[in-house]
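To illustrate the input format used throughout this study, we show a single complete record. The first block contains the structure-token representation of the backbone; no residue identities are included at this stage. The design step must infer an amino acid for every position from geometry alone.
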């Protein structure tokens, strides 16, 4: 029985340190981040910039574990008709949700989205934080934009002060 209690205590201490590291990483993300680049690497092909070389974007991480992303293409112009409005919507990506961190895995449980296909889904990314620079990368996946191709997307952010 004593061994079981000792094992349970050791497991608890081990898991608590893991939770503390995830909490620490989440705390380091809190604040506002400006998008500096979005690149989609086609596996076995060339890199693409889906919203152009100077996309605009902001990510806001809250202390209670929520995140909001908004990304728009460069050089957008006001819409004056339905076709232009549709084009504006296609040049925007926005979603929010509760996020969790497990190692370098960053998961957002999407609760609202500009594209209802994302609402209710998990958006899984891998993150790397170096000072005031944050990189979010997708796993290799089949592209919905580059039909029939596998891609890896990388978004790079700088902390706003």
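Output of the design step:
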């Amino acid at each position: 029985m004593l061994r079981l209690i000792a094992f349970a205590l050791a497991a608890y201490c081990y898991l608590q340190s893991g939770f503390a590291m995830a909490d620490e990483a989440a705390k380091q993300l809190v604040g506002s981040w400006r998008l500096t680049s979005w690149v989609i690497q086609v596996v076995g092909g060339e890199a693409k910039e889906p919203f152009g070389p100077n996309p605009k974007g902001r990510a806001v991480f809250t202390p209670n574990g929520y995140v909001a992303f908004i990304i728009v293409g460069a050089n957008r112009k006001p819409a004056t008709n339905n076709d232009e409005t549709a084009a504006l919507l296609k040049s925007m990506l926005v979603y929010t949700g509760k996020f969790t961190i497990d190692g370098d895995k960053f998961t957002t449980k999407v609760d609202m989205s500009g594209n209802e296909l994302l609402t209710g889904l998990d958006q899984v990314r891998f993150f790397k934080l170096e000072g005031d620079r944050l990189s979010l990368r997708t796993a290799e996946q089949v592209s919905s934009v580059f039909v029939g191709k596998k891609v890896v997307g990388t978004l790079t952010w700088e902390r706003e002060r």
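Structural context for interpreting the output: The radius of gyration is 19 Å. Helices lie at 2-29, 82-90.
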